């Protein structure tokens, strides 16, 4: 959180918002992954203070294969 705001992303191909980030590397803690991924996406080194929310997206397809089910947690 910064200035009572939470950063979310979207794109033109999808009609939902999602948190910035990506995958966790083998042996990496969740905290390390969050710090690394947010830096990779924003170029800003943030500290983790607390869990703000748990965000899940469930959808079909990735824009190319409509029959697949996906979940982002």
Topology:
Blueprint: H1 30-42, E1 57-60, E2 69-72
Antiparallel strand pairs: 1-2
In short:
The protein has 73 residues and is of the alpha+beta class. It has one helix spanning 30-42; strands at 57-60, 69-72.
Structural class: alpha+beta
Give the mean pLDDT. 78
**Gap between N and C termini:** 19 Å
Helix proportion: 10-25%
Give the biggest beta sheet. 2 strands, antiparallel
**Count the strands?**
2
Q: How does this model look, in words?
A:
The protein is α+β, with helices and mostly antiparallel strands and 73 residues long. The chain has one domain (1-73). The chain is 18% helix and 11% strand. The chain has one helix and two strands; from the N terminus they run αββ. It has a two-stranded antiparallel ribbon with strand order 1-2. A hairpin with an 8-residue loop joins strand 1 and strand 2. The protein starts with 29 loop residues before the first helix and ends with a strand. The mean pLDDT is 78.
Essential attributes:
73 residues; alpha+beta; single chain; two-stranded antiparallel ribbon
